[in-house]
Amino acid sequence: MYEYECSKCALIERRYPIGSAPGTDKCPTCGKEARRVYSPPYLNRTSRPVATALEQSYKSAHDPEVVKRDTSGTQQGEQRPAVNPEVKKLVGEKAWKNVREARHPAAPAN
User: Fold this and answer.
1) Residue 31 region, left (φ>0) first, then alpha (ψ -120 to 50), else beta?
2) What pTM, to 2 d.p., does this model score?
3) Residue 80: strand pairing partners
4) For residues 2 and 21, is the Cβ–Cβ distance under 8 A?
5) What is the CA radius of gyration of the chain?
6) Closest alpha carbon to 70 in 110, 43, 39, 41
7) Range 6-40 burial, b when 16+ CB lie within 10 A, else e
8) What is the largest CA-CA distance in the chain?
9) Which residues contact residue 10 at a Cβ distance below 8 angstroms, ignoring those fewer than 6 apart?
10) Strand 33-37 relative to strand 2-6, pairing
11) What are the tens digits of pLDDT across the range 74-92?
12) How far apart are CA 80 and CA 70, in angstroms?
C-alpha cells in the first residue's frame, strides 16, 4: 500500500507491487498529479506477538537493558557453573557438596 497526496483533494492510497510504485499518480477525484508520500508501515496490522518482538528488538538495539548477576561466592572474574539437578542425583548429594566446597568454599550449597 502506497500513499499519494493530491494538492487539491487529500491522501490517496494505491496498491502496487513492491519496488514498482511511481513517484506520482493521478488523483481519482480531480485527475491532478499526486506526489508519493513516504509514511511508516502499518504496524497496527501486525499481529500482537510480532509487534511486541519488533518493539523489543528496536529497544534493545538502541537502549540495551543491563543485566546484573549475583556472583557471590565466586572468585573475581570466575563465573559459577550452572547447577543441573540431574547431576546432583547422578553423583549423590554428599559428593556434590564436597565438590562445591572444594571449588567454592564460600558458596552456599544448592
Assistant:
1) left
2) 0.37
3) none
4) yes
5) 30
6) 110
7) beeeeebeeeeeeeeeeeebebeeeeeebebeeee
8) 87
9) none
10) antiparallel
11) 555 556 666 677 777 777 7
12) 9
Task: Give one DSSP letter per residue of 33-64, joined into a string.
Answer: EEEEE-----GGGS-HHHHHHHHHHHHHHHSP
Q: Give 15-52 pLDDT, tens digit per residue.
A: 899 888 899 998 988 988 999 988 776 655 677 888 78
C-alpha dihedral, 38 to 44 to 49 to 54, nearest 10°: 20
Q: Give the DSSP H/E element, type plus range, for residue 102.
A: helix 93-103
Here the cell at position 32 is 491532478
**CA-wise closest residue to 13 among 37, 45, 46, 43:** 37
The answer to whether the CB of 78 falls within 8 A of the CB of 42 is: no
- CA 14 to chain CA centroid, nearest Å: 31
- Distance between CA 38 and CA 5 in Å, rounded? 10
Q: Is 86 helix (H, G, I), strand (E, B) or coil?
A: helix
How far, in Å, CA of 18 to CA of 57, rounded? 24
